[in-house]
Amino acid sequence: MPHIANTAQQAAWNGYEGAHCAAHPERYEDVDGGVDEPLLAAARLTARDRVLDVGCGTGGLTRRAAAVARSVRGIDLSEPMLATARRAAAGGRCGDVAFSVADAQVHPFAPGEFDVVLSRYGVMFFADPVAGFANLARALRPGGRLAAACRDRFARTDLGAVFTAMAPHIPFPTGPDGSGPSSLADPDRTRELLGAAGFAGVRCARVEVEQRWGADVDDAAEFLAGWGPVRHHLAEAGPAAAGCAREAMRAALARFAGPDGVRLRGSAWLITAERPA
Question: How far is CA 124 from each of CA 2, 71, 143, 182, rounded to the nearest angstrom?
Fold first, then answer.
């Protein structure tokens, strides 16, 4: 069995949250996949590269990287999402792709095993960020590259406005800005953490992306209500408060509805760095 240090994250991603992502991979690609093009451009992949995809989830980014790179290994804590990733990779021509359960903070990678470490929203949750990034630096060859997309502060996004509309009735589902999913939204802190972990040339660039949450308001509201943190707080709130929160969610989502669905403006930080040669 793999050694796991981030046990709380393991429990979350092997519970309902991971199961929901595994059951709706196309829906989550509609929400998160918009960052892939700028992320892959920042990674500068070549046909010679051996790539590690950290927090690969259902493998959308992994498969895109495999269309370019020599080999790609996707790792995640979630067995349900990895099962979906393996099925998707087996059903297409994805090149040399492998998936495994591993905690990137402590997994014993071979030193210099990879040329590039990629991650789409998978490196914000380390229990010990310096230890986690130091382990990734060791896994890179000297001169190897890191390229990661990380959540921006929700206050800068349309999804944050939806959560704020619900906040009189249920807690903000992601916790305060600057923690949890947005723990790497401060470029100064990010540069400090990665520098302490042994990376050099740390750069942070903010990008805006579009997220499609559903075909219409009903569809988007049902999907968002099923997302793990929102589902948890709706269940804890009781029927009256949960009903009010759902109505507030629908009203907020309606502002972003158009003929091609409910589309929210999101933003992310593209973080790039190198292991010193």
Answer: 20, 24, 23, 7
- CATH number for the region 7-153+174-210+266-274 comes to 3.40.50.150
pLDDT at 1: 57
Banded pLDDT at 117 (limits 50, 70, 90)? very high
Query: In terms of DSSP bridges, do strands 140-151 and 261-274 run parallel, antiparallel, or are they unpaired?
Result: antiparallel
What does DSSP say about strands 261-274 and 257-258: parallel, antiparallel, or unpaired?
antiparallel
- The residues pairing with 210 across neighbouring beta strands, listed in sequence order, are 265
DSSP assignment letter at 152: P
Strands 71-76 and 50-54: parallel
- Rounded Cα distance between 231 and 225, Å, is 5
Q: Is 141 helix (H, G, I), strand (E, B) or coil?
A: strand
- Per-residue pLDDT reduced to its tens digit, 36-62: 999 999 999 999 999 999 999 999 999
Distance CA 160, CA 58 (A): 25
Angle (CA) 22 258 34, round 5°: 45
Task: Parse the chain into domains and list their residue ranges.
Answer: 7-153+174-210+266-274
